[in-house]
Amino acid sequence: MNQLVAFRHSRVLPALVAAADAQAQQRFLEFFVSNIRNPNTRRAYSRGIGEFLAWCEAHGVASIAVVQPLHVAAYIEELTRERSPPTAKQRLAAIRMLFDWLVVGQVVPVNPAASVRGPSHSVKRGKTPVLDPSEARQLLDSIDVSTPAGLRDRALIGLMVYSFARIGAALGMKVEDVYVQNRRLWVRLHEKGGKRHEMPCHHNLEAYLHAYLEGCEIAEDRKGPLFRTIGRGTRNLTTTPLPQANAYAMIQRRSNAVGIGTRIGNHTFRATGITAYLKNGGTLEKAAAMANHSSTRTTQLYDRRSDEVTLDEVERVLI
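^ Integrase, sequence as received from the core. Prediction below:
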């Protein structure tokens, strides 16, 4: 209940929800607090549903209780023309899930999004930028590890490269999630959907994590966050977890400092590690298990081995 109250006071209800009765308003808020546990999904769905309800309001819909399939279909059609198909499909999924929740709560009799089809979209290759192994090595070696920030940044980037960790899982780690098992350092990642994923450390990652924990003297703070912000004026670690936006800004600074031309992001290192593993004889099935993918089809999106083949063929055009 406290979480629901905090969420309610942190935002203004969309006009179509505010125009409905108290039951609808309560059920709408409970959808985000009770039904969606992942904060990233909650944020994305909140933004998408907010835009849809604003569109409905602009088109004369009086209340969330009177939204019809025609409204949902027209919105998705317009969105498909203006945005990418994956965006339209995600928004439709959010709208459909919300109205399923409202149907169960007896706020609306039927789900107006149930019969609406999203745009066709098939992906065989992901868009995440991938670094060449030599670029990743150059980036890691360029970090000045004489400072707490340097030790932290090398450990974080190394974790994503060598364990294929998502940035959210990496930043959600506590110090106790780095532990010894069978005389080897392991990491415990708390992935999407509440899944716990454990991985042994590559010897380079093991060295990075040992240097970070010992150099910054946080090894004994077992319940504290593993990756932390740097205090202003002190250049020492705080007890505040490193936000994802700060991690992204750090990666941009580090890549710019060594002149990497590829426009990279937090997810780049996951894709770089998976591609490097596959190029060196790893199997797709093992890569999927290491990346905690439920299907090898998802892992294939990170496989960029074909890029080199394509480049070799392009260079055959000798003019």
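The CA atoms of residues 51 and 154 lie 39 Å apart.
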